[in-house]
Amino acid sequence: MKTKHIALFPLLLAFFLLPACAQQSSKENLTEFPPVITDPAHYNELTPKEERVILHKGTEMAFSGAFHNYKESGTYICKQCNQPLFRSDDKFNSGTGWPSFDDFIPGAVKEIPDADGQRTEIVCSNCGAHLGHVFFGEGFTKKQARHCVNSVSLDFVPLFNDAEKAQHPDNGIQPLSEYIKGKGYEKYEQATFAGGCFWCTEASFDLLQGAVDVISGYSGGKKDYPTYEEVSSGTTGHAESVAIFYDPAVISYETLLHAFFIAHDPTQLNRQGPDVGTQYRSAIFYHNDAQKASAEAYIKELEQSGKYDKPIVTEVAPYTNFWVAEDYHQDYFPNHPENPYVQRISKPKVEKVKKAFPDILKDGHGQ
Ligand SMILES: [Zn+2]
């Protein structure tokens, strides 16, 4: 079973990978930023304590600032000029008592040799406010950089305001519409399938030319913003699903259906192999009448072919919603080849699809 004990491993991994992979979040700018001030005559007024650090390059006492242990999602901006400097996604706990970031917003931070002749000072690229220092190669994160910043040099703009927070929990789940915003997928069509563990389903469709993006998530359920744990409990009605954005000029919906039925067993009711529960049911969530007709016709054809000795139990239902799963579930198969579940369960399924469609595999997946 993939649930619980194996799920703990990706959770731990996600904890370490998050700073690197959470940057593609499209959730920015949901709360308003104060305008960046470029005229020095209008900089925000500073308290004497702030002046000592920002203007005179002082250092606040370790563990004394407001942000060294701050964990809210949002953006850190310059106290003096409001320029956005660091994202909470790049913040990590260094244990030093100062806020630490392994990256900064491109162009926002300038490095200059410190007057002590050894360290590298970091300042706001807009107003020159002293922020702190940057240290490299210490091994804290993959990026090997620690931007050690005084809390007093920063202000914070939360990702969500209170009203949005109430209806938009920051739990790593996004509506599909938000996730694809700005990606230009309007010109493609969407197919949505559930065929057991989405790690396998995603990897199977990812092989095929014309499948522009395959996204793992939760579909066909009732609760908004459902987490993996909630869906795994089997109580939300969602199925682990994939949303496929495909170019109909390159691959047809019929071919996707064909691949879907190769990649999973449509005769297993509410399970796929070791994974048991309605969240692993076989389902086609159609987006229009043409998809519905194709799905029903293909299932009928399969039933008449005698390929299966048991009835096909695939649910054919109208598409209602799709919640993009937590970051660590995306591209799980290529990212975790060593995972025993991937080895034993996912790989054989993906290999079956590879074998069935040798002529339409993306480059790099050929035999
Ligand atoms: Zn500034």
Give a short summary of the structure.
The chain is an alpha+beta fold. 26% of the residues lie in helices and 22% in strands. It folds into 2 domains: 32-158, Beta Complex (Metal Binding Protein, Guanine Nucleotide Exchange Factor, Chain A), CATH 2.170.150.20; 169-360, Peptide methionine sulphoxide reductase MsrA (Peptide Methionine Sulfoxide Reductase, Chain A).
Structural overview:
The chain is an alpha+beta fold and 367 residues long. It has two domains: 32-158, Beta Complex (Metal Binding Protein, Guanine Nucleotide Exchange Factor, Chain A); 169-360, Peptide methionine sulphoxide reductase MsrA (Peptide Methionine Sulfoxide Reductase, Chain A, 2-Layer Sandwich). 26% of the residues lie in helices and 22% in strands. The chain contains ten helices and 18 strands. The protein has a seven-stranded mixed beta sheet. Helix 5 (198-206) packs across helix 7. Zinc ion (ZN) binds next to loops.
Spell out the blueprint of helices and strands:
Layout: H1 5-21, H2 48-54, E1 74-78, E2 84-87, E3 91-92, E4 100-101, E5 109-113, E6 120-124, E7 130-136, E8 145-149, E9 154-158, H3 162-167, E10 174-175, H4 176-179, E11 189-195, H5 198-206, E12 211-219, H6 228-232, E13 239-246, H7 253-263, E14 271-272, E15 275-276, E16 282-286, H8 289-305, E17 315-318, E18 322-324, H9 332-335, H10 340-356
Helix pairs in contact: 5-7, 5-10, 7-8
Bound molecules: zinc ion.
Zinc ion binds next to loops.
